[in-house]
Design a protein that fits this description.
Chain lengths: 382, 382
């Protein structure tokens, strides 16, 4: 072999060994991964069709069913971050012209609309102010007006901190012959979820929130009615990577090659799910709730208000109203620079109006609550 | 908070601590990650918009330019496995009705056709037998006949072990006003690549081949002519997750949130690229070539033939013709069971006709060549 051209050395950087500050990640995500998850990530690899890897895949699928409380056979981790699992729900089930009704009460409702439109959906919307949720009557009225094939709701709005109740919504959707799609990115593993009892047909999540695994892999579940809609498509899924008629054969009985699974991220997700099985869902949900309440009490003592009404407040993500006259971004920068604590600025309509503070998974601990409240107190008093 | 329903414990598996056999991965990929890469994966996280993470992003982008030998500003890791980066090239640049000409001489040519068709391309093909490559004259004739907007070629066909020469192809494509798309999944970091000198407009790769990083993140580069085609689209990119008009703003100067980057996979990729910068591209390419030649000599001594003509043989992936009367799958199973060595079975037209053996990145070492040759000798003599 002769090199017919000379090598350009311009971008041959000499960089130091990886090192990053020890941040406490209390924004809207990622949250800090559990140390056992970080350790699992570094395990040596096996092939993506190795018999022992297939055992791990089975375990991950079972444990995802546990945390979502579903019996859906098609319950898998998508080989990408949460937004890809979000897109997978729509890419597989929307056909051109299908009416898709999106409940928009935050940033991620807008994202669902954008995605649905790219798959040719006739996108409809119902709206609530950011931080509020839809009542069953409002949803019924929306279904009555728009007669959609899919109703998409955000169970845990990461941009607002509101938790959309889903009990009874599945029954409504059955009545109107429509599929129920739920964003559970900021609820899975931290906030009560009963997909099957609530009649949710499709849901997705991220790994980097209450599961305490780094981002890069994303849970997806499709129920029988969603799979039926997929099987009845008259055209191929217009997205190769997320085509569940093919991906499902790798995660299903066939174990047919589609793309190379992200092996080490699956190691990490398995460990994250194993930690949840050890702790127990009831205990984990109660822990998230208790630490959130501790935080809310502390905020009140500092004279800070929450943006969302108590009844609909997510334990995993709190939006804190920014007091008059406070430079919100200066506060987040000071928390990072002086305390190594990351919190989130407001997104979309809440930009400059609220901070977003996560107490997710491994990070949902009293000592983190105390540390953050103290850091807030120091920063706001300056 | 009250739980209005009881928790189903069916899928609450009690699983042991993660452990897997110490496999030597000498199939078509994944190859074993370098130990320093596995260590980097487990580094604590920072936020995906943290100032220190942005420094790491800049480093990864520069180092990708080095290994690809390109100055393309849009050179990034896609937050998914290699097939997603493959899809990203087509999703962004194909508009409905565009003629896309695919050189089909292996499995991944078929995949490119499938993907292009999902984006509404008028898919055309030129064919060569699996294991052979296209001459410049054959490519010119294809361009003359089909007048495509994009010519897609597989530089390193992982299904056949053939290396498609690309010198001169870029000039041809300019002459016919068409973009050149190259699959470099099994060549990046192991086989000479000079994207800019060859006039390649778009390329993608995987992390789990010659880069010696686990799968889950995938390099993508788009040159100025590809970006121009993207900018001139009359419709939105019909794939949200891979829409480079948005993803490019996270990796570009704006650093605007699109999706949460797979932080720890980026740590791993950075370390993998750092190892290449330390070794040097010329030295790395020469090492791959030398170890492949050592392997080919050993195969000849065992009386085994390579499927691909010497001149076009990839150093990173060798297809070994299966001798008459040998049960090919029984051999791969014995290598795994008795030697902890994974090699690949033939794919597509080469199923049952060839084994696929990778000597990629960290795994391209003489001791691995000797070990595999010895294991082959033991297994075939039984």
């Amino acid at each position: 072999m002769t090199l017919n051209a000379s090598i350009n050395e311009t971008h041959r950087l000499q960089t130091p060994q990886l090192d990053v500050p020890p941040r406490l990640l209390m924004g809207p995500g990622p949250s800090n991964a559990h140390p056992r998850v970080l350790q699992a990530l570094g395990m040596r690899q096996v092939g993506h069709l190795d018999p022992c890897f297939i055992d791990l895949m089975n375990e991950v699928q079972a444990l995802l069913k546990y945390v979502w409380q579903t019996e859906n056979a098609t319950t898998i981790p998508v080989s990408a971050t949460g937004s890809a699992a979000m897109e997978a729900t729509l890419a597989n089930t929307v056909e051109s012209g299908d009416a898709v009704l999106v409940g928009v009460n935050g940033y991620f409702g807008h994202r669902l609309m954008d995605m649905a439109s790219r798959y040719g959906a006739d996108v409809r919307r119902i709206d609530k102010p950011w931080g509020q949720v839809f009542s069953l009557d409002e949803l019924r009225s929306g279904l009555e007006t728009h007669r959609p094939k899919i109703l998409a709701l955000v169970h845990a709005e990461t941009s607002t901190g509101a938790c959309q109740p889903l009990e009874g919504v599945g029954d409504l959707c059955c009545e109107y012959d429509c599929l129920l799609l739920a964003d559970t990115v900021t609820s899975l593993g931290g906030v009560p979820l009963f997909l099957d009892q609530w009649g949710v047909d499709m849901a997705y999540s991220g790994s980097q929130k209450c599961l305490s695994c780094p981002p890069g892999i994303s849970p997806l579940t499709l129920g029988a009615r969603a799979i039926e809609k997929l099987n009845q498509r008259s055209t191929k899924v217009p997205n190769w990577y997320l085509d569940m008629s093919m991906v499902g054969k790798y995660w299903g009985k066939e174990r047919t090659y589609h793309h190379t699974a992200p092996i080490n991220m699956i190691y990490g997700l398995r460990e994250a799910l194993r930690l949840i099985a050890e702790e127990g869902l009831a205990e984990r949900w109660a822990r998230h709730q208790a630490n959130a309440e501790l935080f809310w009490e502390g905020l009140a003592q500092l004279g800070l208000d929450c943006h969302v009404e108590r009844q609909y407040r997510l334990p995993s993500l709190t939006t804190v109203s920014i007091p008059e006259g406070v430079d919100s971004k200066a506060v987040t920068q000071k928390l990072l620079a002086n305390h190594n604590i990351e919190i989130g600025n407001g997104l979309g309509e809440l930009a400059g109006k609220a901070w977003r503070i996560g107490l997710m998974g491994f990070n949902s601990r009293p000592e983190n609550v105390y540390m953050l409240l103290d850091a807030f107190k120091q920063t706001l008093s300056k």
